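tool_call: predict_structure(chain=1)
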Amino acid sequence: MSDEAEQELELTTPLVPLFVITNGRALPPEHEYEHTTLVTAAEEASAAARTLSPEAGQVMDLVTDGFLSVAEVAGHTHLPLGIVRILLAQLEENDLVLVRRPIPRAERVDRELVSAVLEGLKNRFGA
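tool_result:
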């Protein structure tokens, strides 16, 4: 790792409290991100990305070339998952990133209902 990269990492460790990185913001309820939520940079994000904080800029650099999960972004930036979620919420509010939420799990099927439908089809069409 280069000296410059080590200095950037040092700025986001104990020297700078985490609330400073997020400007004291909490995660808004409408921006809940699961570990597997995928994030990529918006096409028109390059001009606005120049005015971001170093941490948000690092997130933007990571997601510029494709999709990364929220967990991967946290791993690459060495920031806590909660901080990454807040940074992503800020970036999403400013239309700098696109978010693809995971497909929800299918609900369990009511076996009694399926059996009743199957029995009705058998009675109707004879099988």
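agent: Confidence is low (pLDDT under 50) at residues 5-12. Proceeding to next step.
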